[in-house]
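Residues and backbone
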Amino acid sequence: MYVVSIDQDQCTGCGECTKTCPADLLSLNGQGKAEVSGEPTDCMGCESCVSVCPSGAAKVQEC
């Protein structure tokens, strides 16, 4: 099982992770930063969000 998370302090709000997530788990919040909007454990572990995040805010962890 994998879990996705976004570090709000590092996120710049570019939205790249929200566009690339095949599980559609990420969205931009009211402050313009990415957040997990789906169930974090529905992450497929593909790390596409990690690979496109220029600030390193997206993390995928295996549980």
Observations:
- Helices lie at 16-20, 48-52.
- The chain has one domain: 2-62.
- Residues 12 and 36 are 15 Å apart (CA to CA).
- The first strand starts at residue 2 and ends at 6.
